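Hi V.,

You were right to ask for the full record rather than a summary. Here it is.
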Amino acid sequence: MRIGVVGPVDVVQKVSKVFSELHGVLPVPIIYQDLEEACKLVSLRQKEVNGLYFCGPIPYLMATQNIQREIPWTYLSYESTGLLLAFLHALSSMPQTIEKGCRFSVDTIASVEVKEILKETGLNIRALYTYEYSPGIDPKKDFSQFHKELYQKGKTDFSISCVRVVTKSLSEAGIPCFPVFPAAQTIRGTLQRLLLEIQNSQKDYMRTVVGLVQPEFHPNGGKFQENKLVSLYHALLAYGEKRQILVVPGGNSRRFQLVETFGQLLVETTDLTRNPLRKALLEATGLRVHIGYGVGPSLGTATIYAEKALELNLSSRSDECFVCDGFDARPLGEGLSGMPISLVAEQDSLLKYSETLRMTPAAVTRYTRAMETMGGPFSASDLSRQLGISAKGTRKILSVFLKADILIESGRRAYPGKGRPERLFELSAKGGERVCSTS
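Predicted structure:
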């Protein structure tokens, strides 16, 4: 998953270093020298990434005011930990201010929060001046002037700024100024929220994934085999705890089950190009394992597909691991670029519905799959976003599926003050039997 990191070079470097701790998250630096450049860069490059991570609230707000958001955005808060780090840095550089009482200025988003946080330090703060960002001001000019005037009038001993160009400008003018620098834990927390938003914005990512893990044992392994199973189970529990996914025995004494979302699987496997689980288990236990992943709208369906994927893995003569969603099974891992194996029985129900709906089998597969991944009632606009087609084209598809009794209307969704309610749809009992059957 590619995350654009928007900010000045020093903060982007720190954020990118924290990002590198997570498998499957690739930071894409979007660096600006002045804040004015941020909006233009975001407008040009947001289509290249899955989400945008702004290294501060001010460039985020500026972009929000000027650019239409096409992907999830988030910003790194500079309050709390980052503000305290800047304050402590200032005190360590100017220890004489502690005894006589600190006098300083801070540019910020929320003055009340800044004052509350700093007063909780218990240190002697003799004077604290704040300047809040608001739409329409020029942070570079107005913040610099704010800090400079107070210092020149002898009201402050130093400044704290969340804008790098302001810090640089004041330092060059001989005014002590310390930048707010975010802590790693704040960066991680904000990133996790962004990843969750990206997953929620694409319902396909929220589908259930079941992974089945079966060790490769020789017959009549005895006590040695039992000990290895225990070792494998502990290794899986450690892996699951690290990734915050569920690990349980798979209803078979020689099989274990992992439960996660498709978004989590994509992040961990770098869009299905890596197979870190096999490597982790081999290093922890010395055991070779067979793995199959199933992806579906429910736990039961995903388990059925995982069985199919594991069956393919067991019958394969290579180390290929498969990810099956009922429509095809794709190899997982580096260098495993084989063509997907089709699991759709086109001569059965698919062709029947293809003729009824007057659509190609591929189109029926695509539309039905999108409807299944909704996980409940959905509107035309929901399906439009899922398929990436126009609202007009989506309504035409829904009309055809309604006439074939594959869909039913299931109510309305109202938005206060935003026009007429949207019609909601869901798969009927007939559609729920799956338009596409697996072989």
